[in-house]
Amino acid sequence: MTGVPEDSGPTDRRPGPGEPVDGWRRRWADRARALGGAARSRTRRFWTGAQPTLRQLWWTEEPATPVTTVDRRFPEPLVVPAQGQVYVFLVRVTFTWSSETARPELFGWYVDYFQPQATQRLHRLAVRCSVEVPPHRPRELHAALAAALAEDDPPPWTYARGEVTFTCEPDVTVHLDERVRRLLQPYWEQRIALECERDLTRRRTDYARERDRGDPAGPGSSAGEARRQAEGSGPVRRGSRPDAPVEQFTPLEPLLPPPAPRAAPGRRPRPHPPDQPGPPLP
Known about the structure:
Elements: H1 21-57, E1 69-73, E2 78-81, E3 88-99, H2 104-130, H3 138-151, E4 157-161, E5 164-175, H4 178-214, H5 219-231
Antiparallel strand pairs: 1-3, 2-3, 3-5, 4-5
Helix pairs in contact: 2-3, 4-5
């Protein structure tokens, strides 16, 4: 398609000196309408044929997959008073922060912004649970704090700023005050020593019973040795256990009896019992 009419005829010429101008304009208007209709039909056909190809080339932006960012923070231990307001407990906490809406470059800034709120929230719970717990029982405080977290304020905790949302999960442990630890150290040393002595006595008794079961000798001697071992009177030689490799050994051949003594020259040999063979004849 060009701007020049395809076939030039008498309608394309300029009007002569005596020809009216309106007829000439009407013919040009009709010609323009015909050319425009042809152009529109060709464009419509071209657009209909090009749509499948253009549809393959269109840019389609897929929805972004949410990415969860996780970070763990270890703040300073929380100091909470124990029963009597003299000694304290040390509550160590680990905060696990996660978010699907925060950008990675701003994640740390949001965690620094929300962590003081989470620390204060946990501190209120710990103070409420610790005022009735003796200072030498950190396990009771840990159980009470875990129950308070599960019932009164269950995690995960949610914090939001604008369109950004964070979740926080605290993990707590309770430790003794250093002054209470020094006071309890002699008690625990003595308790450990007594438990070790008790275990040693129990083991000696068990070994004596095992030896009595595997010893074919008289029961009196075994019972006396077991009693001496239980009382710790002195070191007693301990026999092998019934399941030891020495006790499980079985000889392949029976043991031969000892040889009988030979008779002196000029004397007759003494008769042997029927269950023992005599010496071989020369």
